[in-house]
Amino acid sequence: MSHSGPDKSTGARPLRVRVPATTANLGPGYDLIGAALNLYNQFDFAPADDYSLQLAGPLAAECKFGLTPDSLIRRAFELVYREVGLSAPSFALRQDIDVPPSRGLGSSSTAIVAALLAANQWLDSALGQADLLRLATQLEGHPDNVAPALLGGCILNFPGGGWTRLPVPESLYWIVCIPDFELETIKARGVVPERVSRDDAVCNMAYLGALVAGFCLKDSSLIKQGLQDTLHQPFRQALVPGMPDVLLAATDAGALGAVLSGAGPTLLALSEQFPAQVGEAMVRAWAGYGIAARFVTCIIDLHGAVCLD
After folding, report:
1. Can you give the residue ranges of every domain in the chain?
2. Which fold has domain 2-165+301-307?
3. Quick check: 83 pLDDT over 80?
4. What is the reported pTM?
5. Which residues, in sequence order, are CB contacts of 170 under 8 Å at separation 6+?
6. What is the rounded CA–CA span in Å between residue 268 and residue 264?
7. Mean pLDDT (whole number) for 149-162
8. Which residues 6+ apart lie within 8 Å of 279 measured at CB?
9. Angstrom distance (rounded) from CA 300 to CA 309
10. d(CA 37, CA 104)
């Protein structure tokens, strides 16, 4: 529910929120692990008598964030106000888009987290971090993207709530190779089976243990061992043409390993060296399937969503 104009009882003022892209799963951490990257969407909120939207940035034409009553941004913003028993004011919004939508880089999470943070700022931080994460998870359906988008760093989430930060080695390059086609998350989730064999479950637990231990111990051999999966990638690769060959190209070029980023179709490689060489090899491998792609070399964003006012 909303009303026209800003609520004079709150600290409504022009506000800029920057939210990082995120990469989820990291292979074996299905719905559990996510990391924030130094690639951002920026949202400028301003009190207004009615809703208005302006799009900017290199990917503005691809943006899917509207301001209809059922949009993620409106729902998230209004959810914060409902938590404290108030109706939400209308606002003007400018979005600068650098995170490509429907590519497995947490685009929807940037919108959810930005709206939650902006509304909470207008309410003079009425809600704490735990409440914001709970609301973000409620809207997104799972925490693996929204948690690092809000908190920064690499986050391991626990079923039923709770999280811990994983100490990812600073020497790692996070190379995201983004193809020129989209994959809706709901479709990618639909191909993952409800049940897997005991052997596959045991195998995936070993991969996840190796990945977490590798991060904590800064052991590249364990990280390499852990960047594998038996729960979701074998089923999703049918939706991503050329995926096995692109992943192989990354490791052949020197990466420790490569995995599906979130639900895809973006592929993520982790490497201690030669990031451009790894990214270029992945782009070439996709070109062999007639698919244009580009790569971006990232590092971990440790801050998460921030207000820049």
Report:
1. 2-165+301-307, 173-298
2. Ribosomal Protein S5; domain 2 (3.30.230)
3. yes
4. 0.92
5. 299, 300
6. 9
7. 94
8. 175, 177, 269, 295, 296, 297
9. 23
10. 12
